Amino acid sequence: MDPVRNPYSPGAGRRPAALVGRDVQLAEWDVALQRVEAGRTAQPAVLYGLRGVGKTVLLSEFARKAIDRNWIVTRLEARAGTSLREAIGDALHGPLADLARPSAGQRLLRAVKTMASFRASVDPGGAWSFGLDLSQVGGGGADTGVLEVDLTKVLHDVAAAAAEEGKGLAVLVDEAQDVADGELAALCSTAHTASQAGWALTVGLAGLPSLPRILAEAKSYSERLFSFHTIGNLAAPLAAEALTAPAAAESVAWEDAAVEHVVSQAAGYPYFLQQFGQDSWNDAAGPDITLTDARVGVANGRAALDTGFFRIRWDRATPAEQRYLRAMAADGDAGSGSGDVASRLDRKITSLGPTRANLIAKGLVYAPEHGVVAFTVPGMADFIRRQPDR
Ligand SMILES: Nc1ncnc2c1ncn2[C@@H]1O[C@H](COP(=O)(O)OP(=O)(O)OP(=O)(O)O)[C@@H](O)[C@H]1O
Ligand SMILES: [Mg+2]
After folding, report:
1. Ligand 1 center to residue 274 CA distance, Å?
2. How many whole angstroms from 78 Cα to the centroid of ligand 1?
3. How do residues 84-114 score in pLDDT, each as one tens digit?
4. Dihedral (Cα; 32, 62, 191, 173), 10-degree rounding
5. pTM (2 decimals)?
6. How far apart are CA 131 and CA 102, in angstroms?
7. 15 alpha carbon to ligand 1 midpoint, in Å?
8. Position 318 confidence tier, pLDDT thresholds 50, 70, 90
9. Is domain 317-386 in CATH 1.10.150.240, yes or no?
């Protein structure tokens, strides 16, 4: 059928036509926004799960809901090599630029001045005052160089500016497992201060399944500070809805057997549902999507995953890293003991430390617990077993 009308969206962070199975998280976020507007505090949220389950999409929905309520929303993706100060500064620039005008309230002008000082150490040019005369305004001083102190100051002042309008500030950080240790501790500590002092601030973090452990290591009170949500595969009825609802909106129906086939082949994994849905649609002659279409769609989808999704990950690994991954693949998707991998490779655990660390840094594996490594996408072990040993 017409690929232009194809309603499926395999990819990174692409909003699905039907965002299913996330009602609990969305309802909690709604409550958080309303509580903050009512002058109460809200528990920051942590969304964690494997690659391709829909964390970014959900975080975008959080952002959209906050923007709809006219909140100040700062959204960033952590990246190794970019400091949190720089990333938060950049992410706050747009929203503050939109609000900054000479007639703005005192609190907003103060927030702009504090923001400019926050950025001063990485942006000495000081292009951050938006042409406003801030000489008569309080604020500033977020340039001690101690991230925790400066971050607390800047988020306090921006949240206060939002509160002046009866709104709040939402700070959303994707790939939060990649925030450097000390910076994550500073972020936790700011969120902690905010929740104690009742600032108009709420935080949402998204990342790999290792994120809760990393947060706990950054600050021991993290387990009580945050509300944790595992974002995972969709149960069969929801997976079926993710396929049928977008088609129904285009007046296209799926045969029951076709839905069953795709749902079982995708095992509820959102990325694969989108991929197989897209390919089944493209193969179908219409008006319905039949079991034959679904079979061809899944086969084409798998071929596309092998040449794209999995292949790109595999090629990102050096030969030594590929040997490590291959040794892991013997355990399937469940995860492997670092010791088992080492003994399969006839090496000492310590000598493989750097290889393991590089694979984690490349996002190919993560450590669900100490001494264990697992693939960040489902089906990787199978893919690796199909690759010729060079
Ligand atoms: N609730 C959902 N229902 C149906 N499809 C979804 C849902 N959430 C996400 N998807 C689809 O799954 C795919 C992956 O989504 P997304 O990029 O948000 O995942 P992610 O968890 O952020 O992955 P990564 O860890 O690689 O960043 C996209 O194609 C998206 O359209
Ligand atoms: Mg993502």
Report:
1. 9
2. 18
3. 998 998 899 888 888 887 788 889 989 988 9
4. 170
5. 0.91
6. 9
7. 8
8. very high
9. no
